Amino acid sequence: MANSISMFIPAICLAIIHELGCNIYMVVTLICVCVFFIGVAFSGFLNPNVIDLAPTFAGTLFGITNTFSNLSGFIAPQVAVYFIEDREASLSAWSSVWLTSMIIACVGGVFYALTASGDKQPWNDRKMDVASQLIFEKEQFISSIVKWRKRQS
């Protein structure tokens, strides 16, 4: 739940920013709201989920997941420059940045909602070969979709 909130509310705010144009105060306010709700993710997936998945390997798993999550800090400015290079004052250039961020947030939120689990992973207690792990992940993914469909009906 916390992760969905932390992805979808900022996505909505980014869509609104696109519509606000040059209203600096409202744009800055919505960016602050985005950052606030992105912070909600820390209560959902980052800290507790790593410990739930594999208590034995929580430190290693946290290091790996944190490495990938921080890549966006390096990639996002490069993508933004692609959109706004030589057009820093252009509303349409910045709108592309906001809409791209919104799409990434929505895709990330949907992907996490469909695939995330807090179940202890079998490789925490024993070694698994790759084929067994893939079968386990497939079964877990299918069961999460079935649970989601039951909640929808």
SSE layout and pairing:
Elements: H1 2-20, H2 24-39, H3 41-53, H4 58-70, H5 72-84, H6 91-115, H7 130-152
Give a written overview of the molecule.
The chain has 153 residues and is mostly helical. Helix content is 80%, strand content 0%. The chain is built from seven helices and no strands. The longest helix is centred in the last third of the chain and has 25 residues, at 91-115. It is elongated and about 55 Å long. 12% of the residues are buried. The model has no long low-confidence stretch (mean pLDDT 83).
**In percent terms, what proportion of residues is strand?**
under 5%
Sequence stretches where pLDDT stays below 50 over 5 or more residues: none
General form = elongated
What is the makeup of the main sheet?
Answer: none
Annotation, overall tally of beta strands: 0
Please report the distance between the alpha carbons of the first and last residues: 19 Å
Helical run tally: 7
> Radius of gyration, rounded?
19 Å
Query: What helical percentage do the residues reach?
Result: over 70%
Multimer state: single chain
Which class do the helix and strand fractions yield? mainly alpha
Order of helices and strands: HHHHHHH
Task: Give the overall pLDDT as a whole number.
Answer: 83
